[in-house]
Amino acid sequence: MKTYACLPALLIAFSAFAQNAPDVVSIEKLLPDLPAGINSATCPAPKLDWVQRVKNTNERARKEAAGIQIVFDGDSITDFWQTKGKAVWTERYGKLGAFDFAISGDRTENVLWRLHAGQLDGLKPKLVVLMIGTNNLSTNTADQITEGVTTIVGEYRKLCPDAVILLQAIFPRGASPSNPVRDEIKSINAHIAKLQDGKKILYLDFGDKFLAADGTLSREIMPDFLHPSAKGYEIWADAIQPVIDTYFPAKP
Fold it and tell me: For 28, how many CA atoms within 13 A lie in the half-sphere containing its CB?
């Protein structure tokens, strides 16, 4: 039946990616065109909006490649620089050639997928601002998450050998300091801190700047006890500003 004619193409595309995951893969191969005459509304297909977003973002990055000096990457916390943190982003990084690749909901494996799919093609950033791992907490151990972050840092070093990586500690989450996830995050941060070499890999843990004196998180800073508010993004920007200034000194 014509209704199912496109399904083999989709399955073949995803199978090809699974077999060649360690190599750079063309996003276009994962988004095959429907055969002529096929009604897309009747064609069984997985939800490809995430893949489509990666494709669109990569295309935009290639167009802006010459001007991209700072790469931000991670999950929704970094992605929301473009919404809740937009005013701060524009003020601090708008003229510095900053580009945000982060996608809401992403885990370490998703960032690796994006890197393998050509995210950095043609880019030569001076600085990479990275934070990832909080979304893995629901299914992975601290050791597994540490390995995931370590692998990502290794990939960035391979793909951007001239860039400095600013690896940020995973932010605290949960309203109370007694929340068990806090200890897991501390364990991961203690391990990934060892990746810093003071030259090409820097590490910053400024999570305490979001906390009250008693260790609690307020809704004013993180309304859902996970994602920063506009004020939270100001705190974040202030925390990394010394690093930004080191590599992008203000012009007299």
Answer: 1
For 194-249, the three-class secondary structure string (H helix, E strand, C coil) is HHCCCCCEEEECCHHHHECCCCCECCCCCCCCCCCCHHHHHHHHHHHHHHHHHHCC
Question: How far apart are alpha carbons 140 and 133 in whole angstroms?
Answer: 9
Among the listed residues 76, 104, 187, 218, the single catalytic one is 76
Which residue, 163, 170, 146, 161, is CA-closest to 99? 163
pLDDT computed for residue 161 by the predictor: 97
pLDDT digits (tens, 9 = 90+) for 120-178: 999 999 999 999 999 999 999 999 999 999 999 999 999 999 999 999 999 999 999 99
Residue that has been written with the tokens 């990569």 in this structure:
58
Q: What does the angle CA 200 – CA 115 – CA 172 come to, to the nearest 5 degrees? A: 65
Whether residue 191 lies in the annotated active site: no
Q: Which domains, from first to last, does the chain contain?
A: 1-46 (no CATH), 63-247 (3.40.50.1110)
> Checking phi first, is residue 105 left (phi over 0); if not, alpha (psi -120 to 50) or beta?
left
| Known active-site residue 227 | yes
Where is 88: in which H helix or E strand? helix 86-93
Q: What is the pLDDT of residues 231-251, one digit of tens each?
A: 999 999 999 999 999 999 987
pLDDT range class, residue 63, cuts 50, 70, 90: very high
- Catalytic residue from among 208, 224, 238, 245: 224
* Predicted pLDDT of residue 21: 47
Strand partners, 204: 168
Q: Is 76 a catalytic residue?
A: yes
